[in-house]
Amino acid sequence: MRRSPAFLHASAAVLFLALAASALSTEVPYLSQRVNDTAEILSPETVSSLEALLKAHEDSTSNQVAVLTVASLEGETIEEFSIRVVDSWKLGQKGKDNGILLLVARDDRKVRIEVGRGLEGDLPDITCGSIIRKQILPRFKEGDYDTGVTDGIHAILGAIQGSYVAEEEEASSSDDLWGRVFASMIFLVVVGVFTAVALFTKGGASWFLYFFLVPFWLVFPLAILGVAAGLTVFGLYALGFLAAKLWFNKSIAGRSLQTKWSASPIFASSSSGGWSSGSGSSSSSFSGGGGGFSGGGASGSW
Q1: Residue pair 141/129 in contact by the 8 Å Cβ criterion
Q2: Over the stretch 38-50, which tens digit does the pLDDT of each residue have?
């Protein structure tokens, strides 16, 4: 099939722009040492002391912590460039994923801590954010990059060793508690309605709903309450539902109660065509949950 000149010109233009954008992006420097000051913002004494500190930490823990400063991101976000760096450098031990990168973009006035998967428990996002705001940014705003990077590295190592506590953790724990309570209430109202429909509906539709709700009762409690409590809630749903259905089927009182509730307007309409639209709505609200993850961390600017 012959292509028109306009099509070929457009294709060439797109290819040229793609190559130009690639050429303009900041090149990932060669990993020559633990402290890579390509932006030349650190003194030789700071580089030497940090190099010795990070080597000693790696020798005793196998964690690989590196520092990189660049002059400019050339329009790229610091998160994107940081991922390119760690993908290229492959910090951390294979199977442990225990690498950390402290990245500083001088002209863009941005900083990021990129954390390997194996250290996310010791260095969660909230701790990274606290280190950036409390230890690094105040010094950077004063133009003191040496102290900012040094204090940041000491705080990072302290967090890994358990001696650093994010200052916001106490206040945020209260906010986190209320957030969990609110999320739990929303979950119980929305999913609880469909669970009740499944419980009091007769026939195959009841069991269809039961299995349809299994992912909801498994995923959301785990995300809201944590592993132990989430699995407990899921177990209560899985076994409690079966026990309730057995009671409805085997006891006179249970059959009477199920008949009474099934005849009510809410459950009667839910077990007919009304249920179908409800399931579609619930399913669509749960879509879009397959996003990617970069390993955790935090960014800041000054």
Answers
A1: no
A2: 999 999 999 999 9
